[in-house]
Write a structure and sequence with these properties.
The structure is a single chain. This protein is of the alpha/beta class and 447 residues long. Helix content is 35%, strand content 22%. The chain folds into 3 domains: 88 residues, NAD(P)-binding Rossmann-like Domain (Rossmann fold); 210 residues, 3-Layer(aba) Sandwich (UDP-N-acetylmuramoyl-L-alanine:D-glutamate ligase); 132 residues, Protein-Tyrosine Phosphatase, Chain A (Alpha-Beta Complex), CATH 3.90.190.20. The strands form 3 sheets. Strands 7-8-6-9-10-11-12-13-14 form a 9-stranded mixed sheet. A 6-stranded mixed sheet has the order 15-16-20-17-18-19, with helices on both faces. Its main location: cytoplasm. Cell wall formation. Catalyzes the addition of glutamate to the nucleotide precursor UDP-N-acetylmuramoyl-L-alanine (UMA).
């Protein structure tokens, strides 16, 4: 029998993880990356004895694949992907591929904002409750690599819309959809309904034995649900109204009532994660925990002692009574809205970068009421100037993290907050949002 040939496009965390698993399963494996491959990933591929190429896609070595595993970052409009589709070669995500080789159950978390925080919090609660659980997807070590090398009973998977687009047979045991707001619209023909349809794929293949958790207050989710059929048991969460099955806010307390005789209550002041959006994130994680019938004390303790993710509303320093916050992970307008919503007034906002077709209108009210100056950090800041020139008196252009921090330092007064929350991708001046956040933190520490 001929060995099946698996070709992997993209040699980052997910691609190299997929190579590990594919090789373990006895496939003939080839990895191709149109860019350069990081040394640490090259080393792994060499140790596995997997052949690879970089800085090119050689069609002759790719179009003979039985199946292709594609990195989520590669759009379907890429010439090599179009050629694969034309040749009728199946293209799937690493998540889809890895799930075939594990019996572990999955909690899959998606949404435009809050998915990393909610995934980490959910993982933290499950781990503290003694479950044998892994964390993967858009966060941490690749799912395929863990399926190849570990033996977990549960996985918490952070799932992006790009991953969902290449998932077909995959089924989430527990699916969580936090919210749907305009993001990555350049990949969805600039149509919000296309992006929303992508997010709703989180419930595909679910049966009546599975669970779907979503936000009752999110307008776009409610709209998308009208076009979505699911057999899964549904739980909602809201901070505005009482929910019959799920979570809601009553007198500053989160109430979770998935089981009629076992109500979970916790004051929002005790939550490790503060800010309105984090009440939603905590509710979603709490429902997952209650569905799994974890003990109330464990859930309460975990929600109270959780440490949040780096680069997401991360406190950096307080210098001369000015607070510096790193929210470099805010790569879309809605994330910046959440950040502004959760900090006090008198903000010097550092924003800008690669604009993904952003509509800044939703920020205008918050900028008008809270922001005293905007420091642009990016090669092209024209659209930010146009959007906010009537709302703030000072808008300054800068072209490095160091320069942005120096300018913000001079603009800020006692009691102010300097907030890096870019609303844009980082690739014009930085390797990625982590690099941007780290350079910001280093510049603050030099003040």
């Amino acid at each position: 029998m001929e060995t099946k040939r698996i070709v992997i496009l993209g040699a980052g965390e997910s691609g190299v993880g997929a190579a590990m698993l594919a090789q373990k399963q006895g496939y003939d494996v080839f990895v191709s990356d149109f860019g350069g491959i990081a040394d640490r990933y090259k080393t792994v591929l060499q140790e596995l004895n997997v052949s690879f190429e970089e800085k090119q896609h050689t069609e002759a070595l790719i179009l003979n694949a039985t199946e292709v595993i594609k990195s989520p970052g590669i759009p379907n409009t890429a010439p090599i992907v179009k050629a694969l589709v034309k040749s009728n070669i199946p293209v799937v995500s690493e998540i889809e591929f890895a799930k075939r080789y594990t019996k572990a159950k999955t909690v899959c978390i998606t949404g435009s904002n809050g998915k990393s925080t909610t995934s980490l919090l959910t993982y933290h609660i499950l781990k503290n409750a003694g479950l044998n659980v892994g964390l993967a997807g858009n966060i941490g070590q690749s799912f395929a690599a863990q399926v190849a090398t570990a033996d977990f009973d549960w996985y918490v998977l952070e799932i992006s819309s790009f991953m969902l687009d290449d998932m077909f047979e995959f089924k989430a045991d527990i699916a969580v959809l936090l919210n749907i707001t305009p993001d990555h619209l350049d990949r969805y023909d600039y149509k919000l309904e296309n992006y929303a349809a992508s997010k709703m794929r989180i419930v595909q293949n679910q049966t009546e034995n599975d669970v779907f958790i979503y936000c009752a207050d999110d307008e776009e989710t409610q709209k998308a649900l009208k076009f979505t059929k699911t057999l899964a048991k549904q739980y909602q969460f809201s901070i505005h109204k009482k929910i019959e099955a799920g979570a809601y806010l009553a007198d500053e307390n989160i109430q979770i009532n998935t089981h009629p005789k076992d109500l979970f209550t916790m004051s929002i002041s005790e939550l490790a994660l503060q800010g309105k959006h984090n009440i939603y994130n905590s509710m979603a994680s709490g429902i997952v925990a209650k569905v799994l019938e974890l003990r109330n004390n464990t859930i309460r303790e975990s929600m109270g002692n959780f440490k949040n993710i780096e680069h997401r509303l991360e406190f950096v320093a307080k210098i001369s009574d000015v607070t510096y916050i790193n929210d470099s992970k805010a790569t879309n307008v809605n994330s910046t809205w959440y950040a502004l919503e959760s900090v006090g007034t008198d903000v010097v906002l550092i924003m800008g970068g690669v604009d993904k077709g952003n509509d800044y209108a939703m920020l205008k009210d918050l900028v008008r009421s809270k922001v005293r100056a905007i420091v642009c950090l990016g090669k092209d800041n024209k659209r930010i100037h146009e959007a906010f020139e009537d709302d703030v008196e000072i808008i300054v252009n800068t072209f490095s993290a160091n320069e942005a921090v120096q300018v913000a330092y001079h603009l800020a007064k006692k009691g102010n907050t300097v907030l890096l929350s870019p609303a844009c991708a980082s690739f014009d001046l930085f390797k990625n949002y982590e690099d941007r956040g780290n350079q910001f933190k280093a510049a603050v520490k030099e003040l």
